[in-house]
Amino acid sequence: PAPAASTSSSTEALHQLDRQRIVHPYLPASTTERVVMTRGKASSLWDTDGREYLDATGGLWLAQVGHGRDELADVAASQMRELEYFTSFWEFSNQPAIELADRLVRLAPDEISKVYFTSGGSEGIEAALKMSRYHHYRRGKEEKTWILARERAYHGIAYGGGTASGFGMYHDGFGPMLPHVEHLTPPWPYRRDLFDGQDCTDFCIAELERTIERIGADNIAAMIGEPIMGVAGMVVPPDDYWPRVREVLRRNDILLILDEVVTAYGRIGSWFAAEHFNVDPDIIVTAKGITSGYFPLGAVLMSEDVAESLEADSGFPMGYTYNGHPTGCAVALANLHIIEHERLLARASEIGGYLLDKLSDELADLPRVGEVRGVGMMLGIELVADRDSREPLPNPQAVADAVRREHGVIVRDSAQGLVLSPALTLTRDEADRISAAIRAVLTTTH
Ligand code: PLP
């Protein structure tokens, strides 16, 4: 049931105080009236006026088990009572972290053998980038410092990941960014103009080989990429892209870092996208779905080879206050248990497939819908101003806002359309509601 509505004056007072006191990212204070949420249950959220919303974005792409799960609140409370946190993770350890690391390694691809914990995705990306350079440094290959990334990538907002991210807005005004980062063409089949009329994978592989030749394999530490590019608009590469990239990198002693901050822990119907795309990375960065957002936690998974060089000599000189946070790790263990116990991997494929079909059927005839795509519960709708030229729709945010305002369904706009990533517990009725709301807005003039 919805909670009792607060008075409108308290909602207004909150809006005013919010504008006065908080610097929010991305949107300006002056023109944005932010909905203040108070409660969540499964895929529903309620605001201060008691209005219900269907959360089709699963928080920020992470609410695998849905909102308001008592089991996770109970685990957090009891771990906090027992041992909330203590001190440096270099001299000490704790049982939830040890058990979680073991669990992750057992779930991960065969190559993975050790885990480094962080508080979230951006910290994990920084760790992974540093690890890749340090790995080569420890092996006497100090020149291997370059990082290959892709245009339209998103790898968080710290300086390393922010530089690897392939959008100007994360660089402009923040420079100088990290040196020695090169951006390649994203494997985005719908954007055929990127590939000079060639097959998407053939083009990307030839470009990768040329780039390695130009910079020199002896100067490149790693390539980083999201298996499916989230912020770009849930861009799904052709099946042969990752295995072929992997082969080129291995031949050149360049590490592969998969940024699975969004794709891991069931979001696309597998524990890791590495499995889905049949690729074995040296380092996998994860966060978000590891706790379904109930606690800020990240985990960087790595091969024995990488772990061996990091742990040699005096160890890996990079530590955070919150490495291996016991409460976060306990919540993660309970969250993974729910994902397994409720068979949410299979459910992500089943309901995600249902939603993809539904959206494809109901939106296919609309002139502003260029492509509907996705895997599991990671879905994108590419919006265009013109279907023939595939020119992007200028303001997808207006569409996302209207879907929320007029239909109470929360969807996100991406660089070129809408993105959906509901809880893996989504029902078919909820999937129907999402599709109907988007169709209704796209058939009007927004
Ligand atoms: N990498 C990817 C692919 C992401 O989508 C995100 C966040 O959305 C990050 C990294 C950064 O994670 P965080 O926001 O937890 O720092």
TrEMBL record:
InterPro entries, per database record: Aminotrans_3 (IPR005814), Aminotrans_3_PPA_site (IPR049704), PyrdxlP-dep_Trfase (IPR015424), PyrdxlP-dep_Trfase_major (IPR015421), PyrdxlP-dep_Trfase_small (IPR015422)
GO function terms (MF aspect): transaminase activity
Keywords assigned by UniProt, alphabetized: Aminotransferase, Pyridoxal phosphate, Transferase
Keyword Zinc-finger on entry: no
Residue ranges of the TM segments: none
Keyword Transferase: yes
Pfam families for the chain: Aminotran_3
CDD domains linked to this entry: OAT_like
SUPFAM superfamilies: PLP-dependent transferases
Family: Belongs to the class-III pyridoxal-phosphate-dependent aminotransferase family.
Full protein name: Aspartate aminotransferase family protein
